[in-house]
TrEMBL record, chains A, B:
Protein species of origin: Roseovarius ramblicola
UniProt-recorded name of the protein: Histidine--tRNA ligase
Source organism phylogeny: Bacteria, Pseudomonadati, Pseudomonadota, Alphaproteobacteria, Rhodobacterales
Quaternary structure, from the entry: Homodimer.
Gene (name only): hisS
HAMAP family tied to this protein: His_tRNA_synth
Main localisation: cytoplasm
Compartments in which it is found: Cytoplasm
């Protein structure tokens, strides 16, 4: 008789694009999110944890022509034929929650949310299909004070988790100004406007010449493929390029102006000189900062230049006014250009922003995979979006918010040595005599009651070498050893594993004698001595 | 021309059986989990956050005869035809993680995990399709010290989150003893054994008579439906009933024994009397506790009785020895019957346990939905399961662990007033003059820097009543008021909203005069005065 076919063993692996997080990867992230939550809480934001599963209808992720949800989400059909999906961000669920509970929520509603989101996208190196987001949003107010508050909170948050002032900058712009520029230059087709937006968002990647090509006829990219352009004429293109490079142009003008003065210097000469020195001159690199006057002057010049670009566009004028208001509110609270700046080069690719947009950038340098220095770059971004709730209720509800890239920020903190430095391993009580397990357990009990992380070795105790290897793998700072001999004399051996490793590596005979890595103490002094060693290791 | 049909608006609601958590529901749970994580960490357990999505193959959730995953999980087919699913617990993913990473993990591997799990089950009142679990497991050791450790950790955990000693008890039993009883009585069919297990797990619900019916021929349940019985004969049934009621029978015997003594009392008479008094007598209800001797005596009697029931069954003898070992280890560490007890009535329904099983029960009374007092009941359970990793690797890997019912434990803490009592609302700075927004923002900035939760009212400021309603909805303890008049004099009004509410309700004129709920102070004293009021409210 043939043997019945066995079911093959399942493969022990995560699905493609998913991963597990171990030990400090989990606890360091939790600690960072805890610090962020504290700041958000202090700003009056309330926690919200929405369901991870939403109806596809509520997420709005149906492709127009097909009856299956869009590929970007993980979706399935419920037993009652409804399509459900995992949330792909925390903003779409917020819109649903607000629409559903608006009568029970305060207006405006400030909320923060932290948790995983899922994207059904092609995974790649460092690109996962489940990752954390951490958002704060204010729903139900059109006031620029809400946007200013989010920017200030973002700056406070970065400092709270350990990014020092000077190592980051929050850049603020306004989408309406760009719309005004486009209006003034006659680009009125919304799809063309969106294409312009996506194009200038690539400025960092393809540079000025690349953006010009892409805004115009198109461009042969590095792979040899031809990318169609947006189709703007040179005349239409110029104000757009000027908008993105507004600050540069303003500084060029300041430079010329300074050159033009001979003996006859105007009252604002000192401030103009300071603007130039901070932004362009060698003094800036040596740490010269704006003062209130020089930054006010620069901002006024930039906003004035934007006013030139938007001409008589109403929406453009609104945008400039909004930028000015945010700037004023922030300066009044002491958030100067060392933390938050107005910067027309920030556009943010997402189509749904309708007014202010902001981005937090880390300005310190790291080495890229090829060892070249580069700026760490963006770790958070957001802006105002006034139409997300409307899908549900028919009424526009103004909202603004920010999303922190949790993994990127955590990577930045590691880069800066702000996390990952602690000794986390437990004290390991080794087992010399299986029959003494209750005594070993009593030892760890004593250590834990003294708030010292400790565990008994629970593997096969026969081979003592394995126990020491285990302690090593656990990153243990200290091992406890007690066999029949020690129990008879009511003593324990305490081994300093950190010192032991150092001695094994490099100690001289003198060092070895002076501070042996293993000491014997009475059982009653176990806790005291372990604590002393742990403190010495810090 | 007909109007183009509009897409209907999406419904703003969670899918059936899912819910959102707001504010303190989120933060109180996070705080509780944080305290639990601290205890687990101190015991040497490492955090693990596995992917929320697993292959259905790894979860083992395929029904034998169909090519679709079992209804219990939310599953969908990936673009490469693989079935993926949301995890339904944290144990199956642990088995997969251990099998996948076993060469990089310490042996034994102690890990804890906290997070949502998803069940594709019929939702009901208080029964959701997404909920939190919080597990700790030790994988890779057969030592009873691992089980004892988990029980001790569970007791420590309950106390750490705020359940006082005396308000809980961890009960320990061993599945092998039951198997031994069944072996001794000739029930050897595994399916029948499993049916016995499920039946005696219903003891609390259907009582002794009900269990007898279900173990025998069957039973007419309350709804009138006939439930088939397991089909044991009366002779087979008796040892099973004795097993479940072992403690009761032992105490009956103690009672008889005490009655039988006249003048001729044995040495252990005092301990026997204490056993009876604590467990049965009025002294127990008055708080008399076991001492080491009386509890040792009771345990010895219970284990002795179990030995009678299992006869010569090898597995049964193993079970009794394991129970004795756990009991000895725990007593040596000081975990007496006020925290952890041996109790043969605990069986836990899950089929996969292979040895020790445990359950944490809260013993204080609450009122049920009909106002009748009842014990709060189980909040955590677990046991040893030795076969979960084998599915992947072919090798049996011993493991033991516990799972805390996060929502139930949080409900218990609320019941005990351990969470939910704090004032969490922010100080609200009202807006009397829109043009002064920067000044209002500066006020909240000062408050926040002093670690006081504060926010500016960002709704439409026209109607001051709406601002006070908003403050009320936010649970604000204090409101700040400053209009032109106050700004001109550099003063602010500070309104104590808690006191204000109390006065509005019940104050006498004297109280009102003595401690008015609104005071005016110089702007420079804002923070100081607010802090004073907040401290007064505690």
């Amino acid at each position: 008789m043939a043997k019945p076919r066995k079911t093959p063993r399942p493969r022990a692996e995560t699905p493609k694009g998913f991963r597990d997080y171990f030990g400090s990867d989990v606890t360091e992230r939790a600690a960072m999110l805890g610090k962020i939550a504290e700041v958000y809480h202090r700003y009056g934001f309330d926690a919200l944890e929405s369901s991870a599963v939403e109806t596809v209808e509520a997420l709005g992720k149906f492709l127009p022509d097909v009856d299956r949800p869009n590929d970007g989400v993980f979706a399935w059909q419920d037993e009652d034929e409804k399509w459900l999906a995992l949330r792909y961000d925390l903003t779409a669920p917020l819109a649903r929650v607000y629409a559903q509970h608006r009568n029970d929520l305060p207006t405006p509603y400030r909320r923060y949310a932290m948790g995983p989101v899922w994207r059904n996208e092609k995974p790649g190196p460092g690109r996962f299909r489940q990752f954390y987001q951490c958002d704060a949003d204010t729903v139900g107010t059109a006031s620029m004070a809400a946007d200013a508050e989010i920017c200030a909170m973002l700056a406070d948050t970065l400092e709270a988790v350990g990014i020092e002032r000077g190592d980051y900058v929050v850049r603020v712009n306004n989408r309406k100004v760009l719309n005004g520029v486009l209006e003034a230059t006659g680009v009125s087709d919304p799809e063309q406007q969106a294409a312009v937006l996506r194009t200038i968002d690539k400025f960092d990647k393809v540079g000025e010449a690349g953006v010009r090509e892409l805004l115009g006829k198109g461009r042969l990219d590095a792979s040899g493929a031809y990318i169609d352009g947006v189709g703007l004429s040179d005349i239409q293109m110029q104000p757009v390029m000027d908008f993105v490079q507004a600050k540069k142009i303003v500084l060029d003008r300041v430079e010329k102006e300074l050159d033009s003065f001979a003996d006859n210097k105007p009252i604002e000469y000192q401030q103009l000189l300071r603007v130039w020195s901070v932004e362009r001159g060698p003094d800036g690199k040596r740490g010269l900062q704006h003062n209130a006057e020089s930054y006010a002057l620069l901002t006024a010049r930039v906003l004035g230049f934007l006013n030139e670009l938007i001409g008589s566009s109403t929406v453009g004028q609104e945008g400039v006014l909004e930028l000015r208001e945010i700037s004023t509110l922030l300066l009044a609270q002491g958030y100067g250009p060392d933390r938050i700046v107005i910067d027309p080069s920030v556009v943010r690719g997402l189509g749904y922003y309708t007014g202010p947009v902001f981005e937090a950038e880390l300005t310190f340098e790291i080495l890229d995979e090829k060892g070249r220095p580069r700026q760490f770059g963006s770790v958070a971004g957001g802006g105002r979006y006034d139409d997300l709730v409307k899908r549900f209720t028919g009424q526009a509800v103004p909202a603004t918010g920010v999303s922190i890239g949790v993994d990127r920020l955590l990577a930045a903190l590691r880069e800066k040595g702000r996390v990952g430095g602690e000794v986390e391993g437990p004290v390991v009580v080794t087992v010399m005599d299986r029959g003494r397990m209750a005594d070993y357990q009593a030892m760890v009990g004593d250590l834990r009651r003294a708030d010292i992380r400790a565990e008994v070795y629970l593997g096969n105790p026969k081979n003592f070498g394995n126990q020491m290897k285990y302690a090593d793998r656990r990153g243990s700072p200290v091992a406890i050893i007690a066999g029949e001999d020690e129990f008879a004399r009511d003593m324990v051996q305490i081994k300093d594993l950190i010192l032991g490793a150092r001695i094994a590596e490099s100690a001289t005979l003198e060092e070895w004698k002076e501070r042996p890595s293993q000491v014997e103490v009475p059982r009653a002094q176990l806790v005291e001595k372990v604590r002393e060693i742990l403190e010495g290791q810090r």
